[in-house]
Amino acid sequence: xxxxxxxxxxxxxxxxxxxxxxxxxxxxxxxxxxxxxxxxxxxxxxxxxxxxxxxxxxxxxxxxxxxxxxxxxxxxxxxxxxxxxxxxxxxxxxxxxxxxxxxxxxxxxxxxxxxxxxxxxxxxxxxxxxxxxxxxxxxxxxxxxxxxxxxxxxxxxxxxxxxxxxxxxxxxxxxxxxxxxxxxxxxxxxxxxxxxxxxxxxxxxxxxxxxxxxxxxxxxxxxxxxxxxxxxxxxxxxxxxxxxxxxxxxxxxxxxxxxxxxxxxxxxxxx
Length: 271
Description:
Elements: H1 2-11, H2 23-37, H3 44-51, H4 55-58, H5 65-77, H6 89-106, H7 122-136, H8 142-173, H9 177-182, H10 185-188, H11 195-202, H12 211-233, H13 259-270
């Protein structure tokens, strides 16, 4: 726990503007190494060589490789995409996801160490806050807002991880994907025993669309469908827990099923 607190303090430190070696210079060099070789190729020794310092000198600024990856992640996440709050939610959400995709194309290693226990820095939380704020502007329930944001993040990382794996395979073998599969004649000659696969191959089924564009459209379609369902039932279900609401015979419609849910909603708005 003490080490985790040290990592939080390092992530949320005030910027060090002194000349010479600094956490900022170490992080910038580490990002360059990871962009070129992925996280598998990242080491304190390589970063030190990149900077022209000894490995031990780096440890005075960044205690470990684990701390370094935390700092790198937050450094490259930068500011959220510009947001037109007057635009439809889907347009805003798509712009936010595309911004995240551009970041991951520049830095595919962002997806290499997926964990539910990554300690977020200020930039990471700003990105997350931006995504949540767009989804929270819709009729989605609070739990659905968080779940949808998580789904979009996992989609982005899955697509980025595919880029990482393809680049690693080509770098390690010196052979492109097209060259690798094109040389597997023995495999293709056995495909005729699988009729569905063969039919799809012969009719162009494997001439795939851009996987990111196709996946993004499907995910957003799913979110849009759930929002439409919530639009149709928002006067019948609790805005906090999704449970049924017993509406009064007259007067103002209720938004919450109970006093408890109403208080929870009030507290969440005050945070």
